[in-house]
Amino acid sequence: ETGVTQSPTHLIKTRGQQVTLRCSSQSGHNTVSWYQQALGQGPQFIFQYYREEENGRGNFPPRFSGLQFPNYSSELNVNALELDDSALYLCASRDRQGNYEQYFGPGTRLTVT
Amino acid sequence: QQQVKQSPQSLIVQKGGISIINCAYENTAFDYFPWYQQFPGKGPALLIAIRPDVSEKKEGRFTISFNKSAKQFSLHIMDSQPGDSATYFCAATFRYYKLSFGAGTTVTVRA
Q1: Chunked mean pLDDT (size 10), chain A, 113 residues
Q2: Which residues have CB under 8 Å from A78's CB, separation 6+?
Q3: Is B98 in contact with A48 (Cβ distance < 8 A)?
């Protein structure tokens, strides 16, 4: 186990709704990244947070937003859900000053109908 | 655009055989190349990683071969076991920022 947890495990939403996914990082990990993994594909980088500020974003629209909290937890928010948002959402944490390995959580499976 | 291309999409190997997965990249700024193993219902887990100043790295039954001039790297799984059946992703990153993943290879090891 990586020590990174995500909730919920599965989620079903309707197109146009909003969703919040949660991640709890390893203690001491000050950097968290979120990835979207569509079925049968590799994870795609959404954004990264360091010390509660976004410091990098992939090719995702602004309706994907996030928050990072001082207690090593973070959130991914997606507004105006589209069918193509159906995917496994992964968070990964690491210690920016230490080991460069990113530790992934088990993911949240989001289905948009 | 996909920055890391991975092949094959899937492979089947007999127990005890060798699995070989290949990846190619374009961005010469990449400075860290990890391989991840993912089981169904789980997140990716780091398997082995290499930096571009090394041509080969071995950890147990897993070996990365790296060809900087060709911008290619590969994962060899020796003495494949049924427990190795999983999806494998190559990835690349610059200064440990975002990971750019390949599309994945599903490995099935037949007993």
Answers
A1: 90 98 89 94 94 92 96 95 98 77 92 98
A2: A18, A19, A21, A63, A64, A65, A85, A110
A3: yes
